[in-house]
Amino acid sequence: MRIALLGGTGDVGEGLALRWAYHTNHDVVIGSRDPDAAHDAAAAYQETVAEHGRETKITGFENAMAADRADVVVLSVPPYHVADTVDAVADSLDADDVLVTPAAGMQRDEDGFHYHPPGAGSVTALVADAAPEDVPVVGAFHNLAAGRLANLDADLGIDTLLVGEDESAKDVVAGIAEDIDGLRALDAGGIANAAEIESLTPLLINVAQHNDGLHDLGVSFR
Asked: pTM of the entire structure?
């Protein structure tokens, strides 16, 4: 399977790209508005994976071209860029693709981070509204610490919650999630439940900032 990470030069994109390249045989494609930045990031990630003993090929393209080459398209961009990014790549998507969003709306003040959903109710709902009608949308990977993902020496042992209306699409995303060693995917229902999941992200950041040894905090359900 070919996975494109749009905005894959950022922290979350890097972590997911490294994990899929290291733990799986999926083709990993890095997307960016700047194709040169995508190429450079892909080369750097490929080198990191090689340093950990696995030879793989990671490619980089402009976002629309990356999406056109993928089966699963992950919007690893900030929440305020998701709708514009979907609009920019819409012609590259079709009903056989799965569009994945890990973004969570947040604001920060002197007390910490706080959940700040868009008018649609959640970033996942915003993406679903922006996506072409026949393209299924799945919310996933919201609550993962980017630093922990990017550290290939770190064990994960954490869960990711999935929301979406298309059960087949959720099965696809659950499969590629669990191809990453130490990551378990749990079904959390439809997109109406996305806000509850996205709101965990600022909570985890606040807990991590106030407790020593928890800077790469994750969630595991038992």
From this structure: 0.95
